[in-house]
Every structure is written in C-alpha cells, then in structure tokens.
Amino acid sequence: MYAVETKDLTKHFRIGLKRKVIALDHLNLKINEGEVYGLLGPNGSGKSTTLKLILGLHQPTEGEATVFGRSSETVVSRLHVGLLPENPYFYRYLNGEETLRFYGKLCRVTGPALERKIDEILELVGLSQSRHRRLAGYSKGMLQRIGLGQAMIHDPKLLLLDEPTAGVDPEGSIDIRNLIIKLKKMGKTVILCSHLLSQVQDVCDRISILRYGKKVLEGNVKELLSKKDQFQFIASGLSEQDKRAVEELISRSGKLESTSHPTSTLEDLYMESVGGTKII
Amino acid sequence: MSLEAVQPMQEQDSLSFSPARVWVIATNTMTEVIRQKVLYVFILFGLALCGASSFFTQFSFNEELKSIIDTCLAAIKLLTALIAVVGTAMLLPSEIENRTIYTILTKPVYRIEFLLGKVAGMSLLLFFVTIVMSVLFGAVLLLDEKALVSHALQGTSLLQASDPVKQTINAIYAQTRNPNLIKAIFLLYAQAVLLVSMTMMVSTFATSSLFSIIIMLVIYMCAPLATIANEVWKSQPSILGRVGLMFISFCIPDLSSMTLVDDVVAGKHVLMSYVLSTTGYAALYTLVVFALGAFIFQEKEL
Predict the structure, then answer these.
(1) Domains in chain A, start-ordered, CATH in brackets?
(2) Closest CA to B251 of B212, B275, B218, B278
(3) The predicted structure's pLDDT at residue B57
(4) What is the pLDDT of residues A209-246, one digit of tens each?
(5) Smallest Cα distance from B257 to chain A, Å
(6) B109:A87 CB<8 A
(7) How many folded domains does chain B comprise?
(8) What is this model's ipTM?
(9) Does A85 sit within 8 Å of B102, measured CB to CB?
(10) How far apart are CA A82 and CA A62, in angstroms?
C-alpha cells in the first residue's frame, strides 16, 4: 500500500461561464511509506492544487487520490495526516501552548498524553520559551515552527509541508531540515513542497517536477543528479608533478573536463560563523 | 531530543460524528469573539443604555417603568442581533483568509462539525451576553422599583399605607416583576440564534464579511414583510401572488413574532403556548437554514 497514490488526478477551475483553467492534468504519483518526496515546480504549476486534492479540500474533476489506501475525499483518510500550510497565521489570540492544545483535542489527543506531547513539541520546534506568548507577537519564523508543531501533534504517519522554511532564518531552516531527516528515520512519510532546491536535494529520496499541471520529471534524487559517464576525484596534498601525472593518465583513455578547488557552501560558511546547528 | 509517539490512533474504516470536536471548535470560537475588542464596544454600549435608562424619570411611575423596560429590551434586542450578525459574518472569511480552516479541515474533522462548532460557539456567547444584560436590566428595575415604592409610601410602612397607595405599589410590582419580561428576553435570544445560523449560511457562499452583513441587514429590514406575507398569502386570489407571498414568508424569517418588546411595554399578557410555538418555529427555521449552510459548505472548494 502506498502512503499516497494518485491516478489520473485532474482538476479544472472554471473562470466565468465558459473559460476553464487546467490546474492539474492526469497526475499519477505513487509515494511509498517512509519516503521523503519532493514536489517541485514553478508558481502555478499545480503543487498546491495537488496537496489540496490529497487533503480533500478540493474535489477532483477526474481521477482519484488515496491516502494509505483510503479515498482522499473521506474524512477518515485524514486520521494520519498533518499539514503545514504555506505562510500559516493561526489564531492570533491563542498562545503557543493553547494552539497545540486546540489542535491536539481536535485529533482526540487528550489528558496527560496531550500535555506531554505539547511540552515535547514545543521543545522540538524551539518555542518552549515562547509558549505563553500570543501568536500575534510571533515572528514569521516562529509561526512556521508552531505550524510544524500543530502538524505533528497527533503523531501522523504522513506530513505535508508546504514551503516549511519560508521566512525562517538559516539556522531555523537547518533545524527544520534536520527535523525532516529525523521524521524519516522514524518511518514517517513526508511530502515537501519547496522552492529551496538545495534543501530538497538534501532531504528528499524522490522528487517530481510539475509544469502547467503536468508531471515532467520524476525519480530518485541521487540517480537524477548523478552523471554516470563522469568521475570526480577529490585529492589533497598533491604535488604539481603528481597532478600533471594524473592529468596525463586521464587523457590516455578519457577527456579531462575541468580541474578546480572544491568549495564550501554559503550555508556551511554561515553556520560556522554563527556557531549554529550542524547539518546532519 | 526525541520525538516520542503518542498513543497511535486506531485503524478504523469510518469516523463517527463527534460532539467533543464540535465542543472544541465552539469554545475556541467563543474565545475568538471574546478576545476581539469590538465585542466589548457592543457590550459597553448595551450596558450604558440599560444603565442610563434609570435616569429616565417621568411624570408618572407608569411611564417611567415603561421607558426603562422599553429601553432595556430594545438594548438587548439590538445588542444580541448586532453580535449575532457581525460576529458570525466575520468567522468564516477570517478562517479562510488566515488559512486556519486548512489546518482544521485537514485533521479528522467533518465540515459539518466545524460549522456546527462555529454556530454553537456564537450561540453560547450570545447566551452569556443575554444573561449579563438581563441581570443588569433586572438590577436597574429593582433599584427603580425600590425608589418608586419608597416614594409612594412617603415614610410610612406598607401595613399602614392607604388603599390607593397599596394599589400604586401593586401596580409597580406588576410591571417590575412581570414574568412576560423573561419570556420576551427568551424569544430575543431565540431570534439571535436564528440570526447566527442564517448569517453562517450566508457566509458559506458570501465573498466577504461585508457581503454577509449587508445581506443580513436586508433580511432584517424585510422581516416585517414576512409577517404580512404569512398572514395574507392564503387569501391571495391569483396563484402567482399566492406563490410569491409564500416564497417571501419562507425565505425571510418572521423575526417580528420573536420581538415582544412593544407587547410587554403595553402590558399585554404573553401566553406560554405562544412562546412555545414561536420557539418551535425559531428552532425549525434555525435547523433548516443550518442544514442548507452545511450542504453549501460541504460542496465548497477551499
């Protein structure tokens, strides 16, 4: 059984009486349990529509979507699903703790188990110090963190994260990335929509790229990115003479494409400078 | 830091309607409206109106008490109707604008539970507002009653008072301790709940809060038409006229039947059977309108 499966999932939106827009065109996806799956594409490519169809917020024009084998149009399919919407706001009049309690009760998590879970999640998303502060006073990054917290309050098997790092500082962004990896280790399925391609590359097992509502590419991230006909050697302490010898050796049966010094990423440099969380 | 699993939800093929989830949404809705400052403005306005009515001293005790009852009941009617329409009209659009609706409806929550929670929360809040206003109204009446009785007795005790004075005092009590006042307040509350349900139904297809408020304002203004249509549709000679008036009497609730302010002020007796039948009408109308709203909301794409 797949965590999420879509069969010819299609969605049309009517504009006026005659015009219609095809938001999603016969999309077929099979997302395995325990997989981190990236849904990529430019704005308007159909990513959000796909999420809304999987969550039953929209009804498909054609085709169907199932979540753990249940039709996405049934409420019971949402028993094991958690969503972090893009740019969430939540109830400004509630504080962090009250927000999690509200969502927990909706999912029938009650009593001491709920209180324990609230403490645990606030700690996990780094909001323990702000638990009694109203959400009206939260920064965008803090709202994103509490959003992630409410998505996890009932310990769902599937998490849908729509731009989870939007508005979050680099350190927070790395925390979220580490959290996604931790969730994967726990056997959770994560569907990630993000424009931060480096993050998607780091955490996703498989991706699919949508364009104009159609899937244009799908596959394993490592396989898609690897250039199978090329090799990369990284060496240190090599003398000029030995370097030339290696170049000569390569030119015997192949072609030397380029030689350069490997570089660090800006993210690594930033984290070294501010002394933040290490990337897993 | 580990992420420990809570007791996993049991695998199940269906999910039953849950009053507990409705209650969670209802209490959250109450908190939402209570923490909006506009509510306090409305309540202060209502309380000020009730309080100020005690200064309406007239030439006779009869006129004085009538003006207090008239003002206080009108304040309760206006305040509950305003909170019901404005408060409810803001609920659904703000949920959609802030995307909180996504986080709720993507949890195992039925749309009807969500809508019912919103209506129940507003109705509960209006219940407390009606109670607070009624208590203040009662306090104003009791204070005035005390002042009027003491003025009538002019230093003598009730036992020593002459018959005309006793008659005056009994007439004062008849107005201040009139059970019809409670019946009138109860029906005003029933009217407010109906307005909540109707505003929620309009909200399910409205494009903004303002749109819902305007539609409800039109319905509120046209309510007397429903009373007339109700009375005359059967006597219409043409079928078209009969159908047209019947349509009006069905589409616009007969709010006038729930407003007994003038009758109570005029000293008319309100029969219990009238209160029961009007409550039944309000409950049925509330249910039908809610069911229609739930149907529209179920089909709505968010």
Answers:
(1) 1-80+157-280 (3.40.50.300)
(2) B218
(3) 63
(4) 999 999 988 998 888 887 777 777 888 888 989 988 98
(5) 38
(6) no
(7) 1
(8) 0.81
(9) yes
(10) 25
